[in-house]
Amino acid sequence: MMKGVYNWIDERLDITPMWRDVADHEVPEHVNPAHHFSAFVYCFGGLTFFITVIQILSGMFLTMYFVPDIINAYKSVDYLQHKVAFGGIVRGMHHWGASLVIVMMFLHTLRVFFTGSYKAPREMNWVVGMLIFFIMLGLGFTGYLLPWDNKAYFATKVGIQIAESVPYIGTYIKELMQGGEIVGAETLTRFFAIHVFFLPGALLALLAAHFFMIRKQGISGPL
Amino acid sequence: MAHGHKSNEKVVFVGDSRVRKKAKTGPSIPPDYSSYPGKSEAFIPNFLLKEWMVGVVVLVGFLVLTIAEPAPLGYPADPTNAAFIPMPDWYFLFLYQFLKLQYVSKDYVVLGTVGIPGVAFGALLLAPFLDTGKERRFYRRPITAILMFMSLISVFYLTKQSWDHYQHELKLTNTIPEHILREEKAREAAEKGQEPGGEAAAAADIPLVDKDDPAVEITKKAQCVACHGADLKGNEGAGIPSFHGIGDTFTKEELVDIVTNGKNNMPSFKDKLSPEEIDQLTTWLAKQKKA
Amino acid sequence: MSNHGKQDKANSSAKRGISRRQFLSYTLGGAGAFMAAGMSLPMIRFAVDPILQKKAGGTWIKVVEASKLTNEPQEFKFKIHQVDGWYVSDPELTAWISKDDSGNAFALSPVCKHLGCTIGWNTEKNNEYVCPCHGAHYTKDGKNLVVAPKPLDEYDLKIENDWVYLGPIKANTRVK
């Protein structure tokens, strides 16, 4: 039955080569921790992606309860964490996952750097990877404000003040980030939109480019 | 299967990827591991299985962490809260601490916020175009490696310094971070069998009794308001009690003792206020009961 | 045919035990399923929590003195305490309370069972509940006459110390 459906689709769209290419491509020995234990350093990229998937899923579930509004944001986070079953765990996954994704990405970046894997022909992939790093930091910064507790509020204020010190355009950047004169209701909705739609969208596009280039160029050879 | 046309007629796609083209090996793609025959394995299932074994271990550890350590949540944002020590997330600490350094603050703040981080992150972004040599081993390209090591050391050092400074400040001001305080309160409340959070919310709403009492003037004169707030609601995060409903917590005698001799961080007021004034003030404070 | 050939092959390999590749594939599937489950089970439990929450038992709300009730339905408003997630409110509800011929009081919900508009008593001077939206009519007992598919819902009602108390809403019990 399943086979029949698959064949029917394959006949029309010729999908076999697409996944065959991913499934059957050969992975070299030097990145395989079963051969050399030190090759575990090559796992960090995959783990970053794994945690990113957890972040996206847990974030989607959190928005089922969260309200991006200065009166209700804190109440809804308090409610989802303390009153909803497994709320503490789902919010914990999102909170600690944010830290873990940075750790994993940091280690992945160091691995790529110290094995010189960014050298020709893989320069573009390094640049894309760094952009992913910056987007992750942006996600961390914008996500921090959302619970609207004291820590969120003051850390965001400091962050925006840093942006304000940019010469000439600083005040414009500040107002653009705040969506007004103060850190308040409009800042929260703005940060929410950036955190939930804009940055994840950019992240997915960059991830696609990252993976496409890895597949196209292969993993860099052994040292 | 395949209704509507003869089943033995195979659809032929233009540019069908199943038709093997002669592999074009561009000069830019080096023949890396394909020149090590017999030493590689298929991505699925052989290699991915090993990756996923690591993934399983990481996931289990991660879930244990989320269960053991709930995500912190402080008190609702209060822009007038002066006692709160703001701290960014740990991965921004190095930047936060960096901006406190002498040559990147005050007149040079632009250097600190845009200049140096801009150069550092810009260099990182464009590393492949700055380090263009063929050599990949890091010890054979000493300049790049040393720059990276130095940046790493300074990032770790600044993060540690920032964290130590934060801990020091917490100790100095005798502050408990409010997400910890909040959890302790919730646990105490749960032990007493109350609704968590109910008490704290209620305390803020208790009105002051006898707002026109002359003792209110004393609170201004004696600078009570400096710590306990202009609304006399104190500051829970810093352990400063609210005057609202304080009569439920302390008797008049206890209040006289606290004002005269101080308590915890609160200084003694016996030099600033006369015994009559203290009496007047504490009489008024003792009247501050919930209902 | 080719299908037969494949089956034979599969059978023979089953006799020899599974191949290395198959074993790896099953282990991979198992590891993948474990990760997917470990990741998504807490989230799914989190999402379905509303349907698993214990429903709060009904509380009785004091509405009006029993002596004020007549055989003619009258509209009474009362406030309930409602906790909706993090939003706590005291919305006002309406009930049409009247006595039947044997003197028993009953309270009907004003929500039309057709499409949820609010009905009124005797607005067409025919001693019937009338819905202004699509012209549904109900008898004094709440029996649906035209348009509406079901009779009007009823509130639990009790009388204590000459006060009428209303409880949770339930399906109409007066209409057979």
Automatic annotation (TrEMBL), chain A:
Domain of life assignment: Bacteria
Any one Gene Ontology BP term: respiratory electron transport chain
Record's keyword terms, sorted: Cell membrane, Electron transport, Heme, Iron, Membrane, Metal-binding, Transmembrane, Transmembrane helix, Transport
Cofactor requirement: heme c; heme b
Localization per Swiss-Prot or TrEMBL: Cell membrane
One GO CC annotation: plasma membrane
SUPFAM superfamilies: Transmembrane di-heme cytochromes
Membrane topology: Multi-pass membrane protein
Single Gene Ontology MF annotation: metal ion binding
Cytochrome b/b6 N-terminal region profile domain boundaries: 5-223
Primary site of residence: membrane
Pfam entry (one): Cytochrome_B
Transmembrane segments: 39-67, 96-114, 126-146, 192-214
Subunit structure: The main subunits of the menaquinol:cytochrome c complex are a Rieske-type iron-sulfur protein (QcrA), a cytochrome b (QcrB) and a cytochrome c (QcrC).
NCBIfam families given in the database record: cytb_ExtP, PRK03735.1
Cited function: Component of the menaquinol:cytochrome c reductase complex.
Name of the protein in question: Menaquinol:cytochrome c reductase cytochrome b subunit
Automatic annotation (TrEMBL), chain B:
PANTHER family per the UniProt record, alphabetical: CYTOCHROME C-553-LIKE, MENAQUINOL-CYTOCHROME C REDUCTASE CYTOCHROME B_C SUBUNIT
Domain Cytochrome b/b6 C-terminal region profile: 33-159
Keywords from the named record: Electron transport, Heme, Iron, Membrane, Metal-binding, Transmembrane, Transmembrane helix, Transport
Keyword presence, Transmembrane helix: yes
Keyword Transcription: no
Chief place where the protein resides: membrane
Membrane topology: Multi-pass membrane protein
Superkingdom of the organism of origin: Bacteria
GO molecular function: electron transfer activity; heme binding; iron ion binding; oxidoreductase activity
Source organism of the structure: Paenibacillus taihuensis
Name assigned to this protein: Menaquinol-cytochrome c reductase cytochrome b/c subunit
GO CC list: membrane
Start and end residues of each Cytochrome c domain: 193-289
Segments passing through the bilayer: 47-68, 108-130, 142-159
Pfam families: Cytochrom_B_C (PF00032), Cytochrome_CBB3 (PF13442)
Subcellular location: Membrane
TrEMBL record, chain C:
Assembly description: The main subunits of the menaquinol:cytochrome c complex are a Rieske-type iron-sulfur protein (QcrA), a cytochrome b (QcrB) and a cytochrome c (QcrC).
GO terms of molecular function: 2 iron, 2 sulfur cluster binding; metal ion binding; monooxygenase activity; oxidoreductase activity, acting on paired donors, with incorporation or reduction of molecular oxygen
Protein's UniProt name: Menaquinol:cytochrome c reductase iron-sulfur subunit
Cofactor(s) in the UniProt record: [2Fe-2S] cluster
Residue span, Rieske domain: 61-166
Entry's family note: Belongs to the Rieske iron-sulfur protein family.
Function according to Swiss-Prot or TrEMBL: Component of the menaquinol:cytochrome c reductase complex. The Rieske protein is a high potential 2Fe-2S protein.
Spans through the membrane: 23-44
InterPro entries xref list: Rieske_2Fe-2S (IPR017941), Rieske_2Fe-2S_sf (IPR036922), Rieske_Fe-S_prot (IPR014349), Rieske_Fe-S_prot_C (IPR005805), TAT_signal (IPR006311)
GO cellular component, as recorded: membrane
Keywords recorded for this protein, A-Z: 2Fe-2S, Disulfide bond, Electron transport, Iron, Iron-sulfur, Membrane, Metal-binding, Oxidoreductase, Transmembrane, Transmembrane helix, Transport
Lineage summary: Bacteria, Bacillati, Bacillota, Bacilli, Bacillales
UniProt source species: Paenibacillus taihuensis
Top-level taxonomic group: Bacteria
Keyword presence, GTP-binding: no
Keyword Transmembrane helix part of the UniProt annotation: yes
